Amino acid sequence: MTHYDLCLAWNWEPDADFVALLAAACCSRGLSLLQATPDSLTDVLRLLDAGEIAFRVLFDRASDSDARFNALVQWAEEHAVDCINPHEQARRAWDKAAMHAAFVQAGLHTPYTIILPSCEEQPVLPTVDLGPLGERFTIKPAHGGGGEGVVNEAASWEQVLAARQERPGDRYLLQAHIAPVLLDARQAWFRVIYCTGKVYPCWWDIGTHVYTPVTRSEEGRYGLAPLREMAATIACLSGLDLFSTEIALIADGRYTVVDYVNDPIDLRLQSRACDGVPDAIVRDIAERLTALVAAHRPQPPEGTTVTLRPIGVVRSPVTDPVDEGWGNVISEIHLDEALAAGLQGLEQFSHVIVVFLMHRSAFDPAAHLVRRPQGRADMPEVGIFAQRAKYRPNPIGVTVVERVGIERNVLRVRGLDAIDGTPVLDIKPYFPPYDRVEQPVTPEWVARLMEGYF
Q: Which domains, ranges and CATH numbers included, belong to the chain?
């Protein structure tokens, strides 16, 4: 059987440039890619059913518009295959009515909205007061994208009733129009893309649909940080790895989510289509998605070399190893932005466990296998596995530290005995039931050794 790392299901011709970038990114990481297109789908399904091929991760960009690809999604579900934008979460995210309720509950500001049941649920509706919507409002079916079925300049109850007839099985949203403020003559309307923990805020021209990336200086000057925070919140609510949303800043200073969750997102290159996504963003998305796929590779068999990739790096005022004074050192762990969402919930813990690589420590068996801790004459000779020396066969450090603060992908801690530039391998919350030992027994020299260390 041939195992592919990634199966990409796609059926939209303008996706070809993105697919080429994704294929190149897979190649650079040594990942195998299986493409399921309308032309190859039948053969792919036959080979899957025959057990001749399989795949580890599915990226579905086709089943929302072509029901034939549902068989591929079903195979993935039956074989417990991991998915980029898991299908159950994606189906929920496609329902604007469901997302509206989730957003409101999470405290995200949305346009004034009236949700109507489908014609099938309730064929006859009592007249609804449309006054709070304003003179003009938008009628949206709960499902569908690309403006399909949307009435943008509705003004009457008759238009609402007519729209419901077009999709009798779908709920409808009636939404008030949103007027963005101007920031230096530019409308504060944004299309924000999220991909595996990284947020790409862009100015969005309502008329031309042209993206312009928000620069760091603009983000600071206009106070646009909430765009990133809201996108991260939407990621948690939707459970998606890749999506876009639209957010507008309105006159009362609130950021309002206008177009809830777009999936699949348009990934045409801006160099090919003026209303496409900036090329650099699409390339980065391809790289990040392949990094996610690489993380799903099977673990190496026992006895082989194990490769660990750092999740972040320590930034500390201490630049050289020392054997004392670590207790009051404040340092920062700068996490890979793709993993920033993994910090969610850690703010509820006072202490965390940091696992790191002591990268400047070289183990010499003759000198370090048996030695006196810290090289002190008043210490006994003990083996390396009976002491906490930095010179180890695998120089891995583990320290319990106090959490000081968290900001985006930066974790600030106190008492981390790792120098500046130290690669971080893992972060765990301190669980007393797991990590605390009542009345432990240690040699008498341990207390003497640790005097002044923290």
A: 1-85+270-301 (3.40.50.2300), 112-176 (3.30.1490.20), 312-450 (2.40.30.70)
